[in-house]
């Protein structure tokens, strides 16, 4: 379509790339690759990595239990999280999605839900970690209500309760009756617990002045745990993982290097690239 503005010369490819992707560092100063144990290697700068690591503190991982398109998932979540600050979602493959929130408070509010019911299936929420990989992830965490018995009211400030609960897992929220102190038999906290570790029945609380208090710990429920693969959410009789490695699994070629669950052995099939939708901003 013609316009009334005069025709301008077409910029060079280098100029267009520079304008589209401005950077604050010199391309010429990028690290020189090297070989380490025969593998092509690069050494990255620590400061930008730590900067992005800090930015990821407001991230959650979501996993859908049924097939769903990213736009449909976005529309559903927009109606549920309309009161949150802008957030983004990006598909990671294998039914996983990266959720990044603007604030830590928003992330904690969503995480405390544990799961989101969709039109079909569920979106289960998982704590993000730098080591997360969709291909190797094994869920050993579950959110459960935990009771702390024989805990005096002097310990019922929310920060104090969260500090105590942090000994068991990651505290997410207080029961309203605990928050309002309408029930004094026990303090009740929703905690994200790693069930691959032994569960305590007591916890020792130490104050700065040296005072020590020991209180009882009660888990109101425990999730199903597969004793074959160690994953939360199913039992051994329904486990689809092999009970033991076969000889075929063990005899891996010496030039095969597995990184975060992805084999680096090249094949024509693995060279295929599938286009992944971009992150969606809300």
Explain the layout of strands and helices.
Blueprint: H1 13-20, E1 34-36, E2 39-41, H2 46-55, E3 59-64, H3 70-80, E4 87-93, E5 96-101, H4 104-111, E6 115-117, E7 122-127, E8 141-149, H5 158-165, E9 170-174, H6 176-179, E10 186-194, E11 202-206, E12 212-219, H7 247-250, E13 258-259, E14 262-263, H8 268-271, E15 280-281
Antiparallel strand pairs: 1-2, 3-5, 3-7, 4-5, 4-15, 6-7, 8-10, 8-12, 9-10, 11-12, 13-14
CATH architecture label of the domain at 49-127: 2-Layer Sandwich
Tally of DSSP β-strands? 15
Report the top-level CATH class of the domain at 49-127.
Alpha Beta
CATH topology of the domain at 49-127: Alpha-Beta Plaits
**Helical fraction:** 10-25%
Order of helices and strands: HEEHEHEEHEEEHEHEEEHEEHE
Q: Estimate the mean pLDDT confidence.
A: 80
Beta content comes to 25-35%
- What coarse outline follows from CA principal-axis ratios? globular
Main beta sheet strand tally, sense and closure: 6 strands, antiparallel
Spatial order of strands in the largest sheet: 6-7-3-5-4-15
The CATH superfamily of the domain at 49-127 is known as RRM (RNA recognition motif) domain
Total helices: the number is 8
Task: Characterise this structure.
The protein has helices at 13-20, 46-55, 70-80, 104-111, 158-165, 176-179, 247-250, 268-271, and strands at 34-36, 39-41, 59-64, 87-93, 96-101, 115-117, 122-127, 141-149, 170-174, 186-194, 202-206, 212-219, 258-259, 262-263, 280-281. It is α+β, with helices and mostly antiparallel strands and 282 residues long. The chain has a six-stranded antiparallel β-sheet. Strands 9-10-8-12-11 form a five-stranded antiparallel β-sheet. A two-stranded antiparallel ribbon has the order 1-2. It is globular and about 75 Å long. Among the domains are: 49-127, RRM (RNA recognition motif) domain (Alpha-Beta Plaits); 141-219. A hairpin with a 2-residue loop joins strand 1 (34-36) and strand 2. It has eight helices and 15 strands. 20% of the residues lie in helices and 27% in strands.
């Amino acid at each position: 379509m013609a316009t009334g503005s005069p025709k301008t010369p077409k910029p060079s490819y280098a100029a267009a790339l520079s304008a589209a992707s401005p950077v604050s560092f010199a391309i010429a100063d990028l690290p020189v690759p090297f070989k380490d144990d025969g593998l092509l290697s690069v050494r990255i700068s620590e400061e930008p990595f730590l900067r992005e690591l800090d930015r990821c503190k407001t991230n959650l991982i979501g996993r859908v239990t049924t097939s769903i398109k990213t736009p449909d998932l976005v529309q559903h979540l927009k109606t549920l999280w309309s009161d949150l600050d802008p957030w983004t979602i990006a598909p990671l493959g294998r039914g996983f999605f990266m959720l990044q929130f603007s604030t830590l408070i928003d992330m904690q509010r969503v995480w405390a839900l544990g799961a989101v019911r969709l039109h079909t299936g569920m979106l289960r929420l998982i704590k993000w970690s730098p080591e997360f990989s969709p291909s190797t992830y094994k869920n050993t965490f579950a959110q459960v209500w935990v009771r702390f018995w024989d805990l005096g009211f002097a310990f019922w400030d929310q920060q104090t309760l969260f500090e105590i609960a942090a000994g068991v897992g990651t505290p997410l929220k207080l029961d309203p009756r605990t928050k309002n102190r309408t029930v004094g038999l026990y303090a009740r906290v929703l905690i994200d617990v790693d069930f691959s570790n032994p569960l305590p029945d007591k916890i020792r609380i130490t104050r700065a002045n040296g005072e020590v208090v020991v209180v009882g710990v009660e888990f109101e429920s425990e999730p199903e745990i597969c004793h074959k693969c160690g994953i939360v959410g199913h039992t051994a009789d329904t486990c689809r993982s092999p009970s033991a490695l076969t000889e075929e699994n063990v005899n891996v070629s010496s030039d095969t290097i597995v990184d975060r669950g992805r084999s680096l052995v090249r094949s024509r099939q693995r060279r295929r690239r599938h286009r992944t939708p971009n992150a969606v901003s809300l």
